[in-house]
Amino acid sequence: MMASAAATTAASPPPRPRPEEQENDDDATARATRRPRVLLGVSGSVAAIKAPLVCERLLRFADVRVVLTNAARHFLPPVAAPYGAPPPVSGDDDGPPPEDDGTFGFPAAAQPVLLDAQEWRDWRRVGDPVAHIELRRWADVLVVAPLSANTLSKMAAGGCDNLLTCVARAWDTKGSAPVLVAPAMNTAMWESPFTGEHLAVLKRVLGARAVAPAASKTLACGDVGAGAMAAPGEIAREVARALVARGFAGEEVARAAAAGEAGD
Asked: pLDDT band at residue 182, thresholds of 50, 70 and 90?
């Protein structure tokens, strides 16, 4: 299957800011006037099917770039049907496989989606861009939604074996750029002592704030209990509040922080 233009261009991190832009990027006046920049990391949980909805909510008040882990791709188009799509009718399984357009179901405004393969694609010599460093420079906030148990454990240990965990390892722990995570896992994994320990490490080292999973819900395995990812609207609201606390004062982000939207 040939990749489309979208898939071909799903490669480059955000353009490197000019020196004068980077110097003034954290100025309070700049934050009060420019649109916030959100880096959305998506890890390999079933809740990744809702990541495009999280992205759509974030785009209402911010510029968004998306980083997918390889495991997350399993739950997104074309491997999986878009979230909310009707089940296939009889006979559909005999048709041609869906075309991989490289978007993974995310809105056009968040394209191109970045994958592990793009980590070193543009690097040839000293001074060339490295994706995880460029993304760290670009973003005002890192949001990992969903945060799987596996990615949580890797981040807590400082692991950096993919583009997302490399960004987390390189995150500016001395600055004020917030980190928010939305855990999503089976109840047994959520209640494991490891989970509390790992979240505590993220809070201590990265200042990360967890958007708590739903109290009780039917999970992908059929169990009923805690562990399902928080609703996209709730995640977006908490991101907006973190941005307002950092000094972003645009009307859209202020409205999202004040009101928010619950539900899926």
From this structure: very high
Exposure string of 129-167, with b = 16+ CB inside 10 Å and e = fewer, is bbbbebbbbbbbbbbbbbbbbbbbebbbeeebebbbbbb
Query: Does 65 fall in a domain?
Result: yes
* pLDDT for the residue numbered 1: 38
Domain residue limits at 138? 31-83+99-258
Residue 251 lies in a domain: yes
Q: Is residue 130 one of the residues assigned to a domain?
A: yes
How many domains would you assign to the chain?
A: 1
- Which CATH number goes with the domain that contains 187? 3.40.50.1950
**Rounded Cα distance, 107 and 102, in Å:** 11
* Residue-wise pLDDT tens digits, 188-216: 999 999 999 999 999 999 999 999 987 77
* Dihedral angle over CA of 39, 23, 255, 212, nearest 10: 40
Identity of residue 197: E
Q: Kind of pairing, strands 217-218 and 224-225? A: antiparallel
Vertex 203: Cα angle to 164 and 65 (nearest 5): 30
Contact 66, 42 (CB under 8 A): yes
Closest CA to 26 of 175, 244, 206: 175
* pLDDT band at residue 93 under the 50/70/90 scheme: very low
Q: Flag whether 21 is in a domain.
A: no
Lowest mean pLDDT among 74-88, 104-118, 231-245: 74-88
What residues act catalytically?
A: 132, 221
H or E segment and range at residue 143: strand 141-147
SS3 call for 94: helix
